[in-house]
Structure formats: C-alpha cells, structure tokens
Predict the 3D structure of the following.
Amino acid sequence: MKKNLSLDLFISNRVNTKKKKYALIIGETPSNGARSPKLWNRVYKKQKNQTKMFPADVSIINLKALISYLKFDDAFIGSAVTAPYKEIILKYVKFISSEAKVIGSINTIKKSNSRLIGYNTDYHGVMKSLISFKKKKKILILGCGGAGKAVILASIKKFKNAFFYFYNRDKKKLNTFIKKLKIKNYEIINYKKILSLYGVDLTINTTSIGFNSWIFRNKKFYNLMYFTPFSNLNKVHGIKSRNKKEFLRKNQNCINNDKLNYFKFLEQNSNCEFFDIIYNPQMTTFLKLAKINGHKILNGLDMNLDQAVKAFCIVNNKEFKKINILMKKNG
C-alpha cells in the first residue's frame, strides 16, 4: 500500500490487499507532514501489532464517498481528521460524542461495527497545554476553526474570570459559536481593533497562519509560514508555482507591514504570553518575534502529542497512561 493515497487509489489498493487492520488520517494533504502516522505506527510496532495508520489525501468532492466506503470496510478501525475537514465531516458521521457536539468539530473517528463515532481530542490536548499558564485577566483568541473551537471552550473553562477578545475572519461563524457557550465577559472584535488592544496577558493563535505548507487556491500557490495572524491576508499575493524565493519577493512589503503591526501589539501588551497551536514549524513567526521581545511562548507540539495519544486510545481501546509513555518516548 502506498503512503500517500488519493480516494480512488486508496479504494483500489484496499480491494487488492490482504485485509489487515488499518487506521487513517483524513485531510486535504496530511501526507505533507502530519505527525499522527509516525506516532501511531511507532506504538503499533512497539506492541507488535500489524495495524498501520496511513495518510489519506482527499479532496472535498471525495470526502463523503470515502466515509461511506470506510463505514463498511471491516479492516478499518478508525481515523484522525485534520484541516480543513474537522467541521465539514460532521455531516457524514451520525454518532457524535458530547464534547464534539458542543465544539462543533471532530478530529477522531472510531469504528464500532458499522457505526462511525466522532470525537474531539483537541479539547483534551488544549487543556493540558493551558496548565503552563497561570491566572489571566485579558485573553485574545485568534480563529474559530475546528481546533479553534476546542481552544475557545477549553480557555473559558480554564480561565473562568478572564475577559475574552475573540477574532475570526468569518465573524458570523464566530458569533454563532460564542452564543452557544453563553459566556458574558467577552467582545468579538474586528481586525482594526486587534491592533489597538492594551493589557492583554495571553494571546492564542488557532489559525493556520504560520503553518509551513503550500496552499493552492484560485489557481495560485500560497505559503503562510512567513506571516503572523496579525497580517492582512487580503494583501497576500499568490504565485504560479511552489517557489519560496518568488513568493517572498512578491510579498516582501506585506511581510514587513505584518511585522510592524505585530511589533506594535507586542509593545502595547508587554506582559502578554503567547500560545500557538501550530507545531510545524515549531517556532512560527508569531512565536519567534514574541520571544525576541522577551515574551513567554508555547508552541503546539505538546498539544498535538496529547491529542494524538487520546485519539489513539479511543480508536484502539487502550489506556491513556500506557500509550502516553510510549508515544512521548518517540514523539
């Protein structure tokens, strides 16, 4: 079986191979650097288990067909789900855990007979990472995607007395989610308001801005690893091929303006700490510039590992403590 599978090739290979148990990580391009296959497969190997996890790169057009196929494949035991499908995939999974219903996204699927059950382990991973931060008064959370919702829910439970600023490009989506949570001390802000905030003591980036990956949109390529979530993405220029030098040349002014805006925020919020749920790269521009200015920072490496352990345990019916030790030795 090949490591990177399109839907058609994946189904074709499953039909022509021995029916060994397998798990997947489903996303647009998880083969470009997702950690779960490495982590899960190391544990399987340690346990002398022939089960393997594979990345399944699937277009949104084929997502429903893949889920339908997996439902009736006896060899399939479960899956991790990554961007951008954590919310979309809810439509195709009928049985959802309570925390996933509140969050409105799933990142783990467990196969039980012919039923697919959706879970959200991002919440578990976030809660463990937030232990690193002490009491906070003002918190800014950027983004409200699949993982972003888990971050928001975990943060308001962890910091019950804090005042929250929430920002998302899709304001309507953010507003709908926040209303479900019935919290009082918050403000949904626009891009301009972010740059004028003072006294924030924790900023969390849950967006994909800063992640090292090429995105293909409207026949052009983009790589947002050079930007912070304080950037104005409407001004970012795409290019015709995956050429880093060309992309940087075309966007140098935009990158410089982004840094100026971010430095202004850092100066206005001198006691702020920064948490970025991105783990590739481990030091995003968002964290790097904050560290240079003397701020405490935390990346998403531990969060990603903790949620992966939890997901593995759910899918494989294992105890968290034992798997946690095995994964963290190899993580």
